[in-house]
Amino acid sequence: MSATLIDGKAIAADLRAKVAAAASRLARDHGLVPGLAVVLVGEDPASAVYVRNKGKATVEAGLASFEHKLAATTSQAELLALVSRLNADPAVHGILVQLPLPPQIDAQAVIEAIDPAKDVDGFHPVNAGRLSAGLPALVPCTPVGCVILAKTVRPQLAGCEAVVVGRSNIVGKPVAQLLLAENCTVTIAHSKTRDLPGVCWRADILVAAVGRPEMIRGDWIKPGAIVIDVGINRVEAGEGKTKLVGDVAFAEAAAVAGAITPVPGGVGPMTIACLLANTLKAASMQAGLPAPAV
Length: 294
Ligand code: GUN
Description:
By secondary structure, the protein is an alpha/beta fold. It has helices at 8-30, 45-60, 76-88, 107-113, 125-132, 141-153, 172-181, 196-201, 250-254, 267-286, and strands at 4-5, 35-41, 64-70, 94-97, 161-165, 185-189, 205-208, 226-229, 233-238, 241-245, 259-260. It has two domains: 30-116, Rossmann fold; 141-269, NAD(P)-binding Rossmann-like Domain (Rossmann fold), CATH 3.40.50.720. Helix 1 (8-30) packs parallel to helix 10, helix 6 crosses helix 7 (172-181) and helix 6 packs across helix 10 (267-286). The longest helix has 23 residues, at 8-30. Guanine binds at residues 96-99, 121, 141-142, 271. NADP(+) binds at residues 166-168, 232. One of its GO terms (biological process) is purine nucleotide biosynthetic process. One of its GO terms (molecular function) is methylenetetrahydrofolate dehydrogenase (NADP+) activity.
């Protein structure tokens, strides 16, 4: 392996410590404790783990955590009623409804019911639109984490060729917007892209967010590129065991890349750290205070 390993776990711990310090200043100077409400509908085990980890990290950073666990049979009207109560609750500055939602619930309707000022996921069309217009916004956490990680290797991204593989509203599109705001030349590739290996090979910064285990091979990567792997895929590891792999074939890619994020321990830990930073930002904005620099 010749690539530098980008230690998302350590970088996320540093960001969480900065959020905690800023939160304690907010409490001391303004009596304000940012509050994050996380809503989980149903018993999906992976979602339950994420929600538990979010709650733990929220409390550790000195923020208030409100967890709402609803039955898998919850109706859309019941969930919308809860969102409406959280929108009106002055102790709640950020609202996150864990996705995916059960099939009887229209996720987009729920996202659009969240007050954009409390939308710490940055999924509301108002925040998506503000991001694409270059206006201040609450920005989705995983994409922010990707850019922070890339900038630890190369603080000035201006002029870089960035290729984002994947066009979801949660990662692909917003990370492309953030890279554009950093003055990268951005290509968004997807399942219909012709010559995907050739397109990836152009990248100085390659962001893989397709959700297909180890799809991106080592010989798709330009020597020296920064590779940010958003994928978290559970695959068979033999003898009845499973393991987590990214969207990039790690060992092959690490032999040619300049820097690469591991899975696990790369982008994943950044998502929660950025969620805490967004909650701090949302609380400050709602109180008419400047967003703390973290
Ligand atoms: N499910 C997986 N990742 C996320 C996320 O970042 N936000 C929400 N709301 N649900 C998720």
